[in-house]
Amino acid sequence: MEVTLGLARAADAKRLLAYLQKVAQQTNFLVMEDLAMDSTAYGELLDFAADSPRHLMLYAEVSGEIIGLVNVNGSPEEARRHCGEIGITVDQKFWRLGIGQLLMEELDYWWQEASSLTRLELYVQERNHAARALYRKFHFQEEGCLQEGVLTPDAGAQNLILMAKLQEK
Q1: Where are the chain's structural domains?
Q2: 3-class secondary-structure state, position 168
Q3: For the segment 22-54, what is each residue's pLDDT rounded down to a tens digit?
Q4: Mean pLDDT throughout 73-81?
Q5: What is the pLDDT of residue 147?
Q6: In what order do the strands lie in the sheet with 55-62?
Q7: What dihedral do alpha carbons 95, 98, 99, 100 form, nearest 10°?
Q8: SS3 36
Q9: Which of 11, 17, 33, 127 is the most interior residue, by most CB within 10 Å?
């Protein structure tokens, strides 16, 4: 299986929205915003992110099918301009095949070489042991727990773990 990576642009908006709608149905580990966004507006966001040292949207694909996505959203708050929040998804058919690790490696490279951010953070459900192990492998530390921080359809209220890592620039 040959995996290729792409920096998301406006031309990818429809495919990415379809991918996000698909993976949102595959697991209750994801906490996703409303995906009813217009593809034109989403495309504008993608182009903005592609040209920013504080935002990233990178996808993995096999034979033209998007199978994974990692994004970083830099905080809009002035006091937190050094922080970026990570989101990562992998199509369930490709779980445990190294796609998440590949996306995290590329994210790490971008963070080291092209980003102006010095803190990356994410929230992960406490019960998502595989994801937590992946993040620890990339030196994320658990910083706290939001008790019953998310409501899920399958298991009700779940704890969210805040994980982060710092970089000196």
Answers
A1: 4-122
A2: coil
A3: 998 888 787 666 556 778 888 888 888 888 899
A4: 91
A5: 97
A6: 4-7, 55-62, 65-74, 83-90, 119-125, 156-166, 141-152
A7: 80
A8: coil
A9: 17
pTM of the model: 0.90
Tell which residue, 32, 30, 23, 34, has the closest CA to residue 127.
30
Asked if pLDDT for residue 169 goes beyond 70, the answer is no
Q: How far apart are CA 99 and CA 91, in angstroms?
A: 9
For position 33, what pLDDT does the model report?
62
Start-end of H helices in the chain: 13-26, 39-50, 99-113, 129-137
List, in order, residues 6 or more apart from 64 with CB less than 8 Å away. none
CATH superfamily of 4-122: Gcn5-related N-acetyltransferase (GNAT) (3.40.630.30)
| Confidence at residue 49, expressed as pLDDT on a 0 to 100 scale | 81
Unique residue bearing structure tokens 């592609």: 50
